[in-house]
């Protein structure tokens, strides 16, 4: 999901009620998607993977607040919440990396001491590297924000980082409002994107692992087949419940305004 500024494209923008009655421009990428497939992709990318309005809007409100004191306060609130999110993502990514690195010592379910298929090992090793990069990007962003915050003009420098490209602020041609840099918005989402992809790799690897043992002898309904079926049922139910929870937390961009 992209956040194309009309600085670069002349598409129309809708308005979203902001803090204190201010209105902010909603990027074209947040317009209501058409079609069931596009709505599903928009839902999947909305926060749990790609950045959504909850990432973009607070930055735009902060950049365009007219009162200097309120602008600094919003910047501080954004900084504090961002650091808390990075800390949480870093801890979860470290735990996931620990689980993935321990997969080599898991009980071998393949008969005759056979090695795990290359697809299983590949999925888990990909999950390990993605988890490590989630930790790395979270640590990098935390250190950068901490260093920026120690400066005398900390809040101003943070806003410059989020809004300026090649030394110039990006402004909407229609509204004149400062627009966050699209690259920065996606960069801020990198730790979550790495973590989510690593989790998917681990789940895929587990499916491949249990079914690799069951697929050796399809004619017999043995213990490996029973284990694979039980695991698949539990995993499918867990995934379904997870997405049901995401649906309950999802706020579509075309929903009614609530004041």
UniProtKB/TrEMBL annotation:
The chain crosses the membrane at residues 86-106, 118-139, 185-208, 228-250. It comes from the Eukaryota. Residues 1-28 are annotated as: Disordered. Keywords: Membrane, Transmembrane, Transmembrane helix. This is Uncharacterized protein.
């Amino acid at each position: 999901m992209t956040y194309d500024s009309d600085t670069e494209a002349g598409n129309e923008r809708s308005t979203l009620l902001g803090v204190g009655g201010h209105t902010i421009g909603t990027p074209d990428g947040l317009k209501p998607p058409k079609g069931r497939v596009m709505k599903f992709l928009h839902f999947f990318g909305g926060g749990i993977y790609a950045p959504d309005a909850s990432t973009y809007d607070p930055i735009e409100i902060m950049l365009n607040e007219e009162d200097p004191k309120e602008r600094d306060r919003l910047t501080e609130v954004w900084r504090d919440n961002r650091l808390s999110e990075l800390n949480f993502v870093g801890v979860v990514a470290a735990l996931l990396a620990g689980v993935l690195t321990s997969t080599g010592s898991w009980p071998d379910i393949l008969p005759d001491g056979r090695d795990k298929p290359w697809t299983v090992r590949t999925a888990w090793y990909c999950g390990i590297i993605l988890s490590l990069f989630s930790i790395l990007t979270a640590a990098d962003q935390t250190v950068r924000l901490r260093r920026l915050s120690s400066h005398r003009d900390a809040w101003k420098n943070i806003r410059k980082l989020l809004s300026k490209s090649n030394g110039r602020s990006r402004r909407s041609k229609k509204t004149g409002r400062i627009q966050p840099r699209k690259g920065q918005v996606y960069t801020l989402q990198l730790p979550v994107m790495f973590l989510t992809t690593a989790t998917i790799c681990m789940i895929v690897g587990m499916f491949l692992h249990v079914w690799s043992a069951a697929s050796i002898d399809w004619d017999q309904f043995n213990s490996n087949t029973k284990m694979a079926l039980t695991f698949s049922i539990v995993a499918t139910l867990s995934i379904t419940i997870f997405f049901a929870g995401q649906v309950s937390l999802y706020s579509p961009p075309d929903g009614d305004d609530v004041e």
